[in-house]
Amino acid sequence: MAEAVATGSGDATPAVVVAALYHFARLDDFADLQAPLKALCEGAGIRGTLLLAREGINGTISGSREGIDRVLARLRADPRLAALEHKESFADSHPFV
Length: 97
Fold this sequence. Notes:
Layout: E1 4-6, E2 12-14, E3 16-24, H1 30-43, E4 47-53, E5 56-63, H2 65-77, E6 85-91
Antiparallel strand pairs: 1-2, 3-5, 3-6, 4-5
């Protein structure tokens, strides 16, 4: 049975949010960003892949609405990633192992 979240209209939305994102930015310190970001994702129950490089960030992640929002807020808190855009879709379960 799929886990769902009730909305005000009486419809049910799947409980897993899938966020695809990328942003070109100069991240010379990308290696220093990896461990704290990984810890945040693990703590928030986020699965997927985020690739950090000198040229920016690219990835697709899945998790609860709250978890995805926490990760996106953390990324956008970095002035270099403030303009990061993402696209969302929804799933009945995590698409990533």
